[in-house]
Amino acid sequence: MAVIHQDIAYNKDIIKKFVDRIVVDSNHPVAKFMLSQIESGNNVIIEIIPRYYSTWLSAVPKPK
Predict the structure, then answer these.
(1) pLDDT tens digits for 7-42?
(2) How many Å apart are CA 22 and CA 7, to the nearest integer?
(3) Neighbouring-strand partners of residue 47
(4) CB 23 within 8 A of CB 29
């Protein structure tokens, strides 16, 4: 299932959290571009909600 978020205030909060986590510096050109696109309404947030979520067993270290 997917939800399209078009509310600019909501999307700005999400992008700011994303920038803080991934880009780290809010003054980076990519961060500024992303925020400007959200503020102008050119971009939206699409939230993807999985029906089922799984991980690989091999991602867990094997006990010795």
Answers:
(1) 999 999 999 898 888 887 888 898 899 999 999 999
(2) 22
(3) 3
(4) no
* Domain extent listing, the chain: 2-59
What is 16-57 written as a DSSP string?
Answer: HHHIIIII--TTSHHHHHHHHHHHHTS--EEEE--S-----G
Neighbours of 46 (CB within 10 A): 9
- Round to whole Å and give the CA distance between 22 and 30: 11
Position 24, amino acid = V
The answer to whether residues 2 and 46 touch, using CB atoms and an 8 Å cutoff, is: yes
CA distance 56 to 40: 40
pTM above threshold 0.85: no
Contact predicate 35/19, CB 8 Å: yes
